[in-house]
Amino acid sequence: MKKILTVVGTRPNLIKITQFHKQAKAFGFEHKLVHTGQHFDHNMNDIFFQELNLPLPDFSMDVDKTSTITQIAGIMIELEKVCQSYKPDIILVVGDVNSTFAAAFVANKLAIKCAHIESGLRSFDKEMPEENNRILTDDIANYFFITEKSGLEHLLKEGKEKESLFMVGNTMIDTLVAFDAEIDKSSILKTLKLESQKYVLITMHRPSNVDIKEGLDKILNLIAELDGKFDVVFPIHPRTKNNFVKFGLEEKLNSLTNLKLIGPAGYLDFQKLIKEAKLVLTDSGGVQEETTFRKVPCLTLRLNTERPSTVEVGSNTLMHFDNEAILNQIDTIINGTYKKGQIPELWDGKSTERIFEVLSKIV
Ligand code: UDP
């Protein structure tokens, strides 16, 4: 039996691999999971294992997270040991986080084949740590599983062999499809006393928005401007929360009367919040894709996206963090003239199956 080792480390990684075990079994592979411990607390990690029925990791790491370097180096050292004992035939790495690059690098040095899931995405913004992780990973991986047309174009432009490129769609959407009935059962709207279509969902965690006081102030002002029109639900990322405290803005945050501030939400509650929202304001990568699948208007407060199909085909719009422009765009959503999105090709819930079908031919 051929052996596949999948490496995960963060919340979005977990959400992208929920169907891997099932499909590995269906295609006759032995499949083991490594967790690098990049995200580790209950709200960012454990709850996803519980809700998404993920098998517990076969190998878990506890590396020094004092700095990005100690973390990446620690993951590399630990993963080398795992590879030496388990001897996988191929390593699967997912997305664009530090764990993705660290694992691809180890595979490369140990001459183990590596496949990158969600390959070829580019924001062309090297200020984003994720962009560097994507480029470095794609540079040394052997097989490339691609979620959208732009990924294919970038990899071809970068000189990859056509035979190593596989347009399979988006495994994050597989999870949405697989758990749709569970998502519908979430009682989060009732718990937060929200009415469908009468609230805005907001998530913010990119350093460019939340590591500066000005960015946090803009978020507060925007929420205040929406008072009278919408309730606002803000499942706050730990990084963002810490920065509100650091910049002395916590009191102002807590004083907003139309704001429902909650911690990072579990998968099912969060997806229910997306599904029933009038619109979503975000700087997340994954949320741009999930809103596109749901055809929920999404305003992404970034100047670029590595997921252009969500803008070209889907319900997403990129925006400067300019409150007047955002409020004007929100008016188009309220009066029904905002664009109607479509679902990109192959975002149909069967991407993991396509990946393992390919693996059954190449591993
Ligand atoms: N997510 C979640 N709870 C939250 C916020 C996000 O379950 O409170 C999910 C979201 O639906 C998406 C993933 O986490 O599937 C995206 O993660 P994040 O925004 O942290 O990372 P990015 O996609 O920007 O790399």
Share in helix: 40-55%
Strand order of the largest sheet: 3-2-1-4-5-6-7
Number of helices: 19
- CA radius of gyration is 20 Å
Structural class: alpha/beta
Arithmetic mean of pLDDT: 97
Distance between the termini: 11 Å
Bound molecules: uridine-5'-diphosphate
Q: What key phrases describe this protein's structure?
A:
19 helices; single chain; six-stranded parallel β-sheet; binds uridine-5'-diphosphate; seven-stranded parallel β-sheet; about 375 residues; alpha/beta; globular
Written description of the protein model:
The chain has 363 residues and is α/β, with parallel strands linked by helices. Helix content is 47%, strand content 15%. It has helices at residues 11-16, 20-26, 42-51, 68-86, 98-109, 129-140, 149-157, 171-178, 180-185, 188-191, 207-210, 213-225, 238-246, 250-254, 267-276, 285-294, 309-312, 323-334, 351-362, and strands at 3-8, 30-35, 59-60, 90-94, 113-117, 143-146, 165-167, 199-203, 231-235, 259-262, 279-282, 298-300, 316-318. The strands form two sheets. A seven-stranded parallel β-sheet has the order 3-2-1-4-5-6-7, sandwiched between helices. A six-stranded parallel β-sheet has the order 10-9-8-11-12-13, with helices on both faces. Strand 5 (113-117), helix 6 (129-140) and strand 6 (143-146) form a beta-alpha-beta unit. The chain is globular. 47% of the residues are buried. The site of uridine-5'-diphosphate has 14 residues, from helix 1, helix 15 and helix 16.
List the helices and strands and how they pair.
Elements: E1 3-8, H1 11-16, H2 20-26, E2 30-35, H3 42-51, E3 59-60, H4 68-86, E4 90-94, H5 98-109, E5 113-117, H6 129-140, E6 143-146, H7 149-157, E7 165-167, H8 171-178, H9 180-185, H10 188-191, E8 199-203, H11 207-210, H12 213-225, E9 231-235, H13 238-246, H14 250-254, E10 259-262, H15 267-276, E11 279-282, H16 285-294, E12 298-300, H17 309-312, E13 316-318, H18 323-334, H19 351-362
Parallel strand pairs: 1-2, 1-4, 2-3, 4-5, 5-6, 6-7, 8-9, 8-11, 9-10, 11-12, 12-13
Helix pairs in contact: 4-5, 5-6
